[in-house]
Amino acid sequence: MKLTWSQILAWRLRRQFVSAADGPDAVAVARRLCGVQAQVASSARLAVAVRSARPDPGEIDRALWDDRTLVKTWLMRGGTLHLVPSGELADHCATLATVRFWEKGSWQRGHGVTAREVEAIIDVVPAVLGERALTREELVEAVVAQTGDGHLREALTSGWGALLKPLSRLGELCYGPPRAGKVTFTTPRAWVPDWPGALPPQEEAGVRLVRAFLGAHGPATPEMFDTWLFGGVARKAVLKGWFQALASELTEVTADDGTVLLALTEHLDSLATDPPSGAVHLLPGFDQYILGAPRGLTPLLPPELRAKVSRQAGWISPVVVHEGRVAGVWEATKGGDVTLDLAVPLPRAPLEAAVARMRSLLAARTG
Fold it and tell me: Rounded to two decimals, what is the model's pTM?
């Protein structure tokens, strides 16, 4: 089956609740997107709001801290902060735990710890947390007291929580409710409703995650899935096994640039019949529409815009999308207005509508 990239990108926009802004709630949006990156909290809120039928500025906090239907923790790639549905966290952890970067000597040396100290952290943190939620300072002091290793105080308080990230991928750590403006950490078994006694087998969890990914970011290749989830360092045999296990549900399609991709067979009709998108959309920084695809996907991200979108230190700019393709970047001013940096002229009416909607979302966020 042959498809154009215009068809594929229009299908992704619809599947990701962008085209119709018809996401029923924050949990449904996070589930469809396979998580919402939350390194920048305001971007995560906008990513949900721009996809929502009824944007609600307080919805994410209620889902996280009252209903516990969303959970916040370090997951994809090197351990970026994400919001994922609580019921899917175990699958993410089981899948990601197939790559144990913290066991590499180069990683340990880079963070100034020994293999024994890493093992001690992984063993001790869940024990000292127990059923509690502790601030980082409280957690560090408890770990030092338990291990008697004062060096861990410096290691655990430096950087972006790098030494705690292995625990999040093992299903032993997640964010707890903030306390007096401070982040807290707890364990999924204490916080997440119906947390399983053990993580599911990776053979099953990985297949479910591949299926979910293709349902929003497909058609795609195994390498695209690997880049999105692992940063391109998945164990090849494991990755191949997940796709082989899903083979009966997949069909090869060929894009108009000759790229061979895999689609869920159940989506072939909509991929073939959905019309290309002529709309304009403003999407926030770190949006999954961009993060779910490799930076080198030219039909989505023109080479001349790559440096403006994918910036230093992993920063992903807010983007203007036209016909499914990135056409420029934008930013919010302190007064809540929107400034555009377009690479090509865009149709006036759709652009004005997209800007007006983003202004209203920004106003609701700060109102």
Answer: 0.96
